[in-house]
Write the structure tokens for this entry.
Amino acid sequence: MYSRLVWLMLILILLSVPVLAGPVIVPPGGEVYLGEEGLDIHYAVPYPYTSIAYFPAGSSPGRDQPLDIMQVNLGRFSVIPDLFYDRTGAWYQWDQVRGTPGQVAFIVRNPRISLKVMDRNTMGDRSYGTVSRGTPLVIQVETNLAGITRRPDYSYNDGPVKIQIKTPGGGTLAGVKTPGGGQYVFSSFMPTGELGYAPPIESGGWDTGWSGYESGLYHIEPKFAVNRMEDNLRSYEGGYTLRGTDITLGTERAGLHLSEETVVRGDPFGVTITGSPGSPYILWIEGGSRTGSPGDQPPMIITSQEGVRQDNPDGPYIIGSYRPSGKHTTIRDLVPSYPFGGVYYYAEVTPDRTGRRTIEWRTTQETGDRRYTIHIEGPAGSVHPRSDTIDVQIVKGSVSLTTGSETFTIGDEVMLRGTNTGSCETYLFITGPNLPSAGGRLDAPRRQVSDGNPGSFTTASGDCDTWEYRLYTGELGLDTGTYTIYAVSAPRDRYHLESTSWQAIPITLKRPYISVSSRRMTVAQGDELSITGSSGGRTDAGVAIWIFGRNYFRYDTVQIERGGWFSYELSSSVTRDMAPGEYSVIIQHPMANGNFDLWPDRNREMVLGATPWYGAPVFRIAGPGALQGPAAAAALITALQSQFIDDTYTEYSIFVQNPKITITAGSLNGTTKMPIVLSGTTNLASGSRLLVEITDERFGPTQKGGEGSWSGYSGTTTTYPGSEEEREFSFEIPAGTLKEGRYQVLIQAVSSPGTASGVLQVTMPVTPVQTMTMNLTPPQSPEPIQTQIQIQTLEPEPTTAEPVQTEKPASTPDQVHETPTADTNGMIPNIMRTMREPPVLLGFGILFGLCVAGLIAALVTWMRKERDEEENDSEGSDEKNVKLAESKEEMDEDSDSYGR
């Protein structure tokens, strides 16, 4: 009863599984493949197992822990590549409740299909080759998908491998013809092991001689054709193998194919022949002169190539006696007889098993630049041989030559470089004044080159495309002038360049030189000095610097920078030890040989020379009898001008001065409320640092109980270019830093002994004059009388007061008040502070006395006017006003006279 229920459940499960394109029931221990989907694994994972487990290699299931446990859908299991790509091999049944494994559920594998094309008769591999039409072929299928054919629901209508053949015309073949007119369909191929054949060997194979097959390339492709493996693996890279192959069905006619139709003379090229595998074909070339003279030879076949047989240059000429179809002459009559008896212009070639063979030809400078025709005919000995021809064009190569410049100084290194497509060797020679007319070796210009003799030429180094050569002009023994350099692809002199490729460029050589930026320079002691200039010619040794002065000698060398520039630095420590005066500087250039021909000895006592022998003494520069200063400089110049010395020179003068710093007199005055700027001039170099110290003249010992306060300031500044040859400096003291008084100023250079001093006078700023107006009004006066009192603040230095001014009264009667001319908020406190000073009190007393006297005079005048008015009652009001004005003027005059 229980068994019936199990079978019933199994039938229901099978009915519930959708129809797929292949067998899906996996037996226990069966094989599954990456990319399969919809598999039924009920048999592989029976109850009570609901999961599968994977154990690493070398472990023991049941004793070791699994590496991976996966719960699965027993009726719709898929071998997802991303989950199983690193878990190939045996998966075990797993009891999730008890945590124990069972038997092997199934084995996961990477699917694999690999195709080859085999000759059915010899079982030789013809993959990616060429076969003659009619050769029977079979497709060898190597795969591991045979496990699918062992599943319970497998049928012969759903094989796992699909094979397609794409024809040269773009069509697709699902099967092939077999001998006798039968047909084999690839869908019927069922792998039963690792290797299989389609069509089967016993069927006779693929009949490639059937008239429906055209000549050309056939591409054979395999595919996975079960359980959507092809679709699921399309986005998955790696793991599986799906490898196809190609086969070419050859034509009945022989064929030729060139690697390139145009060949540069000197380069090799290849010719590929197609024909029946294993059958000999005759290959030869025609063109050029019949004699094969130099410059008109056809390309030649390189000897000792596989599948190529050639006659011996001394005979017998078995291959050369072949008579091409339709001709009455042999091959040796069609090709030149020189060199080597002409045997390298033809050969017998046997195609390999693919029906192909590539033959390499070579060209040289003797090859003529023209068109040649290559022939093939065969198979040799057949009644109706097939033939083919192809043309190849040989052209002269090109040679380029560059130097980067056209003018060079004797002693310079000239880098010659270029390209050469005409040969792998570049030959160089030179022509010019008093050189061989045919050309001289580039490295030995007076040695004539010999046409056709490679050893007589200078050869450049490089590969078969580019070349270069370093030319040292100082070693050529050439004078100044213009010369022409030739680069040739063959050893040909100037008169035999018509049959080769070449290029020539002119170069001009000039004498070496040396120059300096300035002929005269003035420097202060302790300043740095830079001697700069330019040089042309060979500069390996640089230039030599000679400095002569009174009881002074210095020698040194300096290297030349790129571009021919040099710079020699005399540090501040050197110039500090140089006494003021003139110094002669001589800069020596080694000229073309790159060696100094005059130099001082190790002890700096003697000047030595290269003539009459190397190290010969020239004159003494130290010790008894030594030449000093100008005399030593003159002796060196005389030696450099000798015809036995090739060195050149230039002269230079240095004037060393005592450091000088001058302070501008106008900058030594200032006030306490404004910034003070000290300025001046100096002969120190621009950028020199100066130390400035400001010291109060009152600075010194303080009396006991005294205040002891004083001002001062210090800092540094830098010189900068000024007018003409002078440099300038300035130093600012912030406002309010220094109090009123006199200060000592000391300015000294940081890197030299130069100093300067002066006295800085700092004063208080002049305060503007303030005016106060007082209105004095006598009682019962018809008009007020206004008196203006001017109070001036006394300064530290005596000043002249302004005269007192009287203005027209502006106040009403019975008013006596002060009217400040400025804002009272600030003026009154200032007046009060000023009035406390004794001089101000004295001045105020005098002014007060004047005011009292003026008041008394005004009262007397007023009383007199009253009396006069009583006596002159008849006079009108206008006359009274006039008299009152006159009395006012008199009062002012009296007041002024009394003040005086």
Summary: Residues 1-20, 776-829, 895-900 have pLDDT under 50 and may be disordered.
